[in-house]
Amino acid sequence: MEGLSLAWQVVTTTPAVFAAAFGVTWGIVGGAMPGISPSISMALILPFTYGMNPVVAIILLAAVYIGAEYGGSIPAILISTPGTNAATVTVIDGYEMHRQGRGGEALGISLVTGWVGGMVGIIILIFLSGWLADVALLFSPAAYFGIGVLGLSVIASLSQASLVKGFIPGILGMMVATMGADPFSGVNRFTFDRPELITGISPIVVMVGLFAVSELFKQCALPPWPKGDADVKIVLPSLKMLFGRLGIPQLIGIIVGTVEGIVPGAGGTVASFISYNEARRWSRHKEEFGKGSPEGVAAPECANNVVTATTLIPVLAFGIPGSNSAAILLGGLLLHGLTPGPQLFQRNPEVVYGLFAGLVMANMFMLIIGYFTIRQCVWLVNRPKPYVLAVIYALILSGVYTLNHSLFDPALLLLFGVIGFFMRYLGFSMLAMVLGVVLGFMVETSFRRALVMSGGDYSTFWTDPIGAVLIGASAVFVISSLAGTLYKQLKKEKMA
Amino acid sequence: MKKYLDKDVTAGLFLIGLGATYYFMADSLPRSLLSDRVGAAGFPKLLAVTLIAFSAVLIVQSLLRSKASPARQEDEDQENAGKDSGDYHFKTAAGMLSLGVIYLIIVSRAGYMVSIALLLMAALRYQGEPVSRKMLLTGVVGGIFFWAFFVFALKTPMPGGIWPTLLAGR
What we know:
The complex is a heterodimer.
Chain A: H1 2-13, H2 16-32, H3 38-45, H4 54-71, H5 73-78, H6 90-99, H7 103-136, H8 141-158, H9 164-177, E1 180-181, E2 188-189, H10 203-219, H11 239-243, H12 247-262, H13 267-282, H14 294-310, H15 312-318, H16 324-335, H17 342-347, H18 349-372, H19 374-381, H20 385-404, H21 408-426, H22 430-453, H23 460-463, H24 465-495
Antiparallel strand pairs in A: 1-2
Chain B: H1 2-27, H2 39-67, H3 70-80, H4 90-110, H5 112-126, H6 133-153, H7 163-169
Helix pairs in contact in B: 1-2, 4-5, 5-6
């Protein structure tokens, strides 16, 4: 009841409703632009949240994420080009439906099943994150060190093609996190006598540089995006269709989306692919898959919208982001001095419950704005690409300046843009670097604090039961990823 | 293919250099009496050593792959490299970066409104848009819009450049 009251307070006393509506609109437009992923849409708006009320800022970011996941399906259905990675599988049947003159129906299924997935995901988020946060209250510094290590071990699952190319950016990220005054002794580390670096490098500058600026550098040399059909009209599925034929695919999407959202590193893309396959396996109309099946749109769209909520469970309960978008949201929390984890539930319950309320509002707005503004969205997306990129460039450089009113931040932003560009080129994981930046501080401080509390006794890390379990789980995570990679290589060698 | 192997080795060597530099910088950090047992340099040194080790592994992996059979090499190249390596145009990206750098150089003198308008027009021209009324209009309207948005809506003091002094002098 207290949670409900806090949520209601946030909705009625802050511009949260406006933030949710604007965030969804921004997200739909951003997600609908090929190359502008949900995380980039969020990164573009992140600097502007600096001066906002923390709850409103977090709601805005979460709303962008929700809008972008739906927005990604618009070009997937209309021009066979997914706006987001998670919408890739929607192309198969969505575009086929559009070719058959059923594009409006496909968009309607994507919108409504995405809404259902999002709402169910929020309910799961509310129950699980609170429970996990209660468990996390028992954590000691050694256990927090274990949590940080567990978060970093996500890198292993993000980089199964090459573990080395995952771990290297992770270490680079932690190196960035060590810049600034040492939290224990106050010694300035790697500040190059620049006063701007004494407080360290803001994770926002790193995230926006890595995700948005590097993508912009890449996109400016690529051909224009294809244009969508500006006259399209959404046709919503009937209740009979929604609970009949689309019932099982949605259930599959919910189950897969919940699991994949909680498991760090998996995310909406994996969820949408798995749910598509499972929907086909359980369908009575298998033969229609690939030829314009409504179930082939419903399952992945429902799944990736469930993930928009369930991916927040590890972020809120432990401070571990499992995807790029979750990392940006974590960056938003850190920007406002909010530490995710059990303390967030204790000290800032208004943020947590406000976020829950904001997610519900954002999902409602997705349904309304997605339905009524489809033509306007397609019109915006059809603007010439050079104009879109030029405006984004100006927006990024201006937005990052507002963090500290210093030109040092935009300069750093460009530097991280260049680093991100080379990382993309070399196949290094950018999320691994972001994980290093956001978890590096927590790993170092909890490691040193645990040692101070134990009088320098390193055995504290394996005598603390929770810490030992978490570090053990991290080891299992890394070893299983390594074993998986080796198994794949051996299999390939056998086949060669 | 050969090019890809070279880029991994080059990246590995660069990272070893970076790790070594970072290690020596950490080693030269002053020791504080307030410090704990690990010290300000402990964690950075650990990171530096780990980076050097992983970079060495990257180089060894790359060299071993160069000796592998062409078929396997091709498969691994596709898996390990950025899947869309052909999409990376360094010169174009460098040009776009230069526009950002020039903006940062001129903004404190020319002021935010003028600089952002110039950035918009330059970015459009650089991407192949012809000089037209539409382009100029985008620059001018964009400059005014961005300035008004940041200064009035977000209450952010953007760089004024020489204009406030000039206007005050008049």
